[in-house]
């Protein structure tokens, strides 16, 4: 769980940073897309690097889901009789929404791939015209809303995910506990905001 | 004061159970939760009914025998408090109090509110000890131990094995207990030789007993009567991971 999650996390960070190219003028994002496809192309061919990334991501997503399903099933088996009276658990909101949060993010990724990678759900949907596709998307408030919900869900997922992964990997000893808690929250907020500035930048006409 | 209770009644491990309503009168605010149940039981006996079975021993918060799910919270609403040390002044007489046993597959209900927690003993048997030569107690200063390590070990050693962590965990995991029992030894020089095997063996035993897996939700720490911190789990995981990487 922690290891597959870490791979996905690294991707999310790289993706968030890459998206910020949208602020560098109309051509920057498109050039960046070309760069990603040309990267290592002497060895992998045009777009080869992207396919390597896709395979690794898909593997990580599958492992991540399998681990989540196993944990959920073990949890159900470990408590066959549930409590008659059970108020909302007391722990953090992020921790208690991990399973449903994960499902929401997965559904979003499907929509997102159809939107900005395949282009079929994109109002512009021209391959390679990444910047134009993004701008066309976020003119619409409901697309911005969908992306916002997903990115906020991702933020919660990352908050608990990072916190938990660091503990699973044994990093968060008593001495570093407060630092780990703070880091998890800080990173989650930065990623959430970093993703959201692009849709809102378009909506408010800063990115055009 | 007069309270309404909704108590889980179950005649035996194989029988089905259910919540039964009782009224208890003559409760003082200074009575403990268990004393309140004693009052109920006295009345039930006088009425010729079966008293409610519940576990208890020391009644001073040190033995770990007591443990009830009170209104859905293990050991009730007060933090860092065992059920025997919980007082009735924390309860509103206008609200019925729901009392249930710990719920986990490895903790079968023996009767009413009593569960069999020997699964926790199986985890300790898997490695929660040191195989050192016994004998007379060594001098206190014979082996120097850094204060910070001694403090962390002592915090973990405070676990009384009540099982509240399992009862509260949405995954039904005893990870806080296992971590406390493994790390209080692993942090001290005497526990070093078996540190890695202990961590691995205790975790394996825990999983084999049918408990759920830890996802660090932190519910356990909130109900733990001894306030064992969640970081104890990170310390255990660190040892388990080191053991796995070294391919023990
Ligand atoms: C405001 C937020 C986001 C924007 C503006 C955005 C934008 C984009 C764009 C333009 C592409 C296509 C890139 C190309 O064709 O070269 C893309 C691909 C992708 N995005 Fe996002 N994205 C956002 C959030 C997310 C989030 C939160 C996730 C995951 C949790 C995600 C996962 C992906 C994946 C998996 C791909 C496909 C990469 C591939 O294999 O080609 N995105 N995104
Ligand atoms: S860790 Fe706390 S809640 Fe769990 S058994 Fe020990 S004392 Fe009880
Ligand atoms: S009866 Fe001993 S801890 Fe409560």
What does this entry look like structurally?
The complex is a heterodimer of chains A (208) and B (248). With 208 residues, chain A is mainly alpha-helical. Chain A has helices at residues 2-19, 26-38, 41-44, 48-78, 93-96, 98-117, 130-137, 141-168, 177-203. In chain A, α1 (2-19) runs antiparallel to α8 and α8 (141-168) runs antiparallel to α9 (177-203). The radius of gyration of chain A is 19 Å and the shape is globular. The mean pLDDT of chain A is 92. Chain B folds into two domains: 3-111, Roll (Ubiquitin-like (UB roll)), CATH 3.10.20.30; 118-245, Alpha-helical ferredoxin (Fumarate Reductase Iron-sulfur Protein, Chain B, domain 2, Orthogonal Bundle), CATH 1.10.1060. In chain B, 34% of the residues lie in helices and 11% in strands. Chain B has helices at residues 33-46, 118-125, 147-157, 164-168, 175-186, 195-208, 219-223, 231-245, and strands at residues 3-9, 18-24, 69-70, 73-74, 97-100, 109-111, 114-115. In chain B, a hairpin with a 2-residue loop joins β6 (109-111) and β7. Chain B is elongated and about 60 Å long. The N and C termini of chain B lie far apart (60 Å). At the A-B interface, α4 and α8 of A face α3, α7 and α8 of B. The structure holds protoporphyrin IX containing FE, iron/sulfur cluster and FE2/S2 (inorganic) cluster. Iron/sulfur cluster (SF4) is lined by residues 159-165, 176-177, 180, 224-226, 228 of chain B. Chain B: One of its GO terms (biological process) is respiratory electron transport chain. Chain B: One of its GO terms (molecular function) is 2 iron, 2 sulfur cluster binding. Chain B: This is Succinate dehydrogenase iron-sulfur protein. Chain B: Keywords: Iron, Iron-sulfur, Metal-binding, Oxidoreductase.
């Amino acid at each position: 769980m922690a290891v597959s999650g870490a791979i996905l996390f690294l991707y999310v960070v790289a993706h968030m940073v890459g998206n910020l190219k949208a602020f560098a003028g109309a051509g920057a994002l498109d050039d960046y897309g070309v760069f990603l496809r040309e990267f290592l192309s002497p060895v992998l061919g045009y777009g080869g690097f992207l396919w390597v990334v896709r395979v690794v991501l898909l593997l990580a997503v599958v492992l991540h889901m399998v681990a989540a399903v196993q944990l959920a099933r073990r949890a159900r088996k470990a408590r066959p009789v549930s409590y008659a009276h059970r108020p909302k658990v007391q722990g953090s909101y992020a921790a208690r929404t991990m399973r449903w949060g994960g499902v929401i993010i997965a559904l979003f990724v499907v929509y997102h791939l159809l939107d900005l990678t395949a282009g079929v759900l994109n109002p512009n949907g021209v391959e390679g015209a990444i910047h134009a596709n993004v701008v066309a998307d976020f003119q619409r408030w409901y697309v911005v809303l969908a992306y916002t919900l997903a990115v906020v869900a991702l933020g919660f997922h990352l908050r608990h995910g990072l916190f938990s992964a660091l503990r699973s990997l044994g990093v968060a000893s008593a001495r570093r506990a407060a630092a780990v808690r703070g880091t998890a929250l800080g990173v989650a907020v930065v990623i959430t905001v970093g993703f959201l500035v692009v849709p809102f930048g378009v909506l408010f006409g800063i990115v055009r | 004061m007069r309270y309404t209770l909704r108590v889980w009644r179950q005649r035996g491990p194989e029988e089905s159970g259910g919540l039964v309503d009782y009224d208890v009168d003559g409760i003082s605010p200074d009575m403990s939760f268990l004393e309140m149940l004693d009052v109920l039981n006295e009345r039930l006996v006088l009425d010729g009914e079966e008293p409610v079975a519940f576990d208890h021993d020391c009644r001073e918060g040190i033995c770990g025998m007591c443990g009830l799910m009170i209104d859905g919270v293990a050991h009730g609403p007060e933090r860092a408090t065992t059920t025997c040390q919980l007082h009735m002044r924390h309860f509103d007489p206008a609200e019925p109090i729901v009392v249930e046993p710990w719920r986990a597959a490895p903790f079968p209900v023996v009767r009413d509110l009593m569960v069999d927690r020997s699964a926790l003993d199986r985890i300790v048997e898997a490695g929660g000890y040191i195989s050192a030569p016994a004998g007379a107690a060594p001098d206190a200063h014979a082996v120097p131990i850094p204060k910070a390590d001694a403090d962390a070990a002592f915090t973990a050693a405070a676990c009384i094995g009540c099982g509240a962590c399992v009862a509260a965990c949405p995954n039904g995991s005893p990870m806080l207990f296992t971590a406390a029992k493994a790390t209080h030894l692993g942090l001290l020089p005497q526990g070093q030789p078996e540190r890695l095997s202990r961590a691995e063996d205790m975790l394996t035993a825990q999983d084999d007993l049918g408990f759920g897996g830890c996802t660090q939700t932190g519910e356990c720490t909130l109900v733990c009567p001894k306030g064992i911190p969640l970081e104890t789990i990170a310390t255990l995981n660190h040892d388990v991971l080191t053991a796995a990487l070294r391919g023990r």
